[in-house]
Design goal:
The protein has 85 residues and is mainly alpha-helical. The protein has one domain. Helices cover 42% and strands 7% of the residues. It has two helices and two strands; from the N terminus they run ββαα. It has a two-stranded antiparallel sheet. It starts with 10 loop residues before the first strand and ends in a 6-residue tail after the last helix. The structure holds zinc ion. Zinc ion (ZN) binds next to α1.
Amino acid sequence: MRYTDVPDPRRRTCPSCARSLVVNEENFHKDSLCADGHTRKCADCRNEAERIRYSLAAPERARRIRERRAERRAHFESTGRYKAA
Ligand SMILES: [Zn+2]
């Protein structure tokens, strides 16, 4: 029977955790570039991946903030109108 080959369009299996979930805003992030408006990976997997990515970028982020702070301090001190605290 042909129709049994067609997966239920309201459910989707996450390729990362292999869970079959109902496609809605709670389980899958919205993405207008995806065919049905939702991402392929489930929200839990995407959140976890993003958490890891964000924590790996922490040293780089801290370095940029330090640099920017030093840059701004040098600028304000060069104007002579502000005293460093
Ligand atoms: Zn998943």
